[in-house]
Amino acid sequence: MNEYTIGQVVFSKSGRDKGRPFIIVKVEHPYLYLVDGDLRKLEKPKKKKMMHVQKTHDVIEDIKTKLEEGIGLKDADIRKALRSYYPSSPKAINEEA
């Protein structure tokens, strides 16, 4: 019964990164290895216990395929995939006007 999968989007429930979205790059029960392409890059994923993340049902298939096949995945791909999970900040809205 593995409830987590590579390429799945999760949110941190605790720690300094609370509320941040991450993508799972490795599952090693009871730990998950998470990246966001910004603070946590592919070469140094965050090791976090499963109980400290909020699971979503979203799996980014493109990222999952690249991870499983070892195809050149970049931090920019991770950031782009997670962009829609960040709430838009008022500052960004003001800059666009």
UniProtKB/TrEMBL annotation:
Keyword Ribosomal protein belongs to the record: yes
Gene Ontology CC entries for this record: ribonucleoprotein complex; ribosome
Keywords for the protein's UniProt record, in alphabetical order: Ribonucleoprotein, Ribosomal protein
InterPro entries (UniProt xref): Rib_uL2_dom2, Ribosomal_eL14_KOW, Translation_prot_SH3-like_sf
Protein name stated in the entry: RNA-binding protein
